[in-house]
Amino acid sequence: MTNRPDRWSDHHIESVMGDLLRAGVLLSAAIVMLGGVIYLIHQGNTAPDYGVFRGEPPNLQTVTGIVADALRLSGRGIIQLGLLVLIATPVARVVFAVFAFSAQRDWLYVLVSAIVLGVLTFSLRGGIG
Amino acid sequence: MTVLELTAAVFGGSLLAGLIGSLTGLGGGIIITPLLALVLGVDIHYAIGASLVSVIATSSGAAAAYVKEGLSNIRIGMFMEIATTIGAVLGASLALHIATSAIAVIFGLVLLYSAYLSSRSHDIQTAGDQPDRTARFLEFDSNYPTARGLESYHVRHIAAGSSVMFGAGVLSGLLGIGSGALKVIGMDEVMRIPFRVSTTTSNFMIGVTAAASVGLYLKRGYIDPGLGMPVVLGVLAGSFAGARIFERMKTGVLRTVFGLVIAVLAVEMIYHGLTGRI
What is the Cα–Cα distance from B204 to B78, expressed in whole angstroms? Predict the structure, then answer.
């Protein structure tokens, strides 16, 4: 490793990434748990039907739909919001990597992180078609 | 069975998967899908979606601890994520277009291979001492803390390693697994990265790889909150508990038992796939 400003040493970057990942997972688990309690209170006694794949309704497939559902305090909507936070956690780590490597002026890795972010964005927008 | 009973069953199974996964270091994600599909009769699409989300949870939770210890190499991780994420998007697209019975058979074969890997003992690799020009350009060569202090290592065979990573990404997106074992092989055996660095860096990459395919699953309605909730919470609780007792346990016997369980699930998956029952 070459000499880099102390504030953005590799060790510092790794440490912030660790905190970021932990915070994301804990936040997500808390939201999922809250939604789970509401879901089980309201729908705990109904019969589940997972034997045949039908797909989720459109409001549980998109970010805006999920947020709207969660704001109506629907149990399934809140759980889905928690799962969305979980999915966003590694994405946030890659976004952070872009900034951290640019603070280090390590342009090669700014590019590498940006490519990974590009692939993630492509997928989260639903891929092709 | 009511929703409450199914939730309890899925939570219990996921708890066990997370616990064993973290104790053996094999990851619990690989048995979530067979558990849901074979034991609880859940459609394999829903099962893969739930498993994929749980993979993000465990890898992020574990990576949080590892990156702080300075064991994982974030540059190798970031660079290899280009290959794993592109592979994951392709794998997920593939999963949406091939028959569920074909997915079951491929899943079974991957499980069999994992069972074989878990039975094989790991021989200690000596890291390559000749610097590689590509590795130097990519700033891969680094050091890591050992009992004898900081030890440096050199990385090699980056093109071959990237190909293995791409394959790991495809399998991750196709089957909803972390592909941790294959990622470790790519780094440890192909690129000659020390085993401890390989396993932790692999873990670091798993979450991003899974996130790269989960978007496609979400968009097509494969991510169900009713299943995702007990799976994520169960696997997380199990792996946290596993990490706590990790140091104090001999995992040899456990690995053998887990290997056998995987082998049985593999045969079941292949049988169900071939007879068109999945």
Answer: 9
Q: What are phi and psi of B36, to 5 degrees?
A: -70, -45
E strand or H helix at B153, and its extent?
Answer: strand B149-153
- Rounded to two decimals, the ipTM of the complex is 0.87
pLDDT tens-digit map of B40-56: 888 888 899 999 998 99
Alpha-helix residue ranges (DSSP H) falling in chain B: 3-24, 29-34, 44-69, 74-95, 100-119, 133-137, 158-175, 180-185, 195-219, 225-245, 252-274
Question: How many domains is chain B built from?
Answer: 1
CA separation for the pair B103, B101 (Å, rounded): 5
Give the nearest chain B residue to A123 (CA atoms): B215
Mutate to test the interface with B, among A83, A91, A96, A121 (most CBs of B within 10 A): A83
Range(s) of the domain holding residue B270: 3-274
DSSP letter assigned to residue B174: H
For the four alpha carbons of B32, B179, B243 and B232, in that order, the dihedral sign comes to negative
Q: Tell me the nearest-neighbour CA distance from A5 into chain B, angstroms.
A: 17
* Collapsed DSSP state (helix, strand, coil) of residue B143: strand
Chain A nearest CA to B121, separation (Å): 31
Q: How far is CA B243 from the centre of its chain?
A: 16
**What token pair was written down for B152?**
């440096």
Strand partners, B149: B146
CB B122 within 8 A of CB B195: yes
Q: Write down the domain spans for chain A.
A: 10-43+57-124
Termini Cα distance of chain B: 20
Tell me the per-residue pLDDT of B162-188, one tens digit each, with 9 for 90 and over. Answer: 999 999 999 999 998 888 878 888 888
Interchain CB distance below 8 Å, A36 and B233: yes
Rounded distance between C-alpha atoms, residue A111 and residue A88, angstroms? 20
b/e map A100-123, b = 16+ CB within 10 Å: bbeebebeebbebbebbbebbebb
CB contact under 8 A, A113 and B41: no
Q: Which residues contact A128 (CB under 8 A, 6 or more apart)?
A: B93
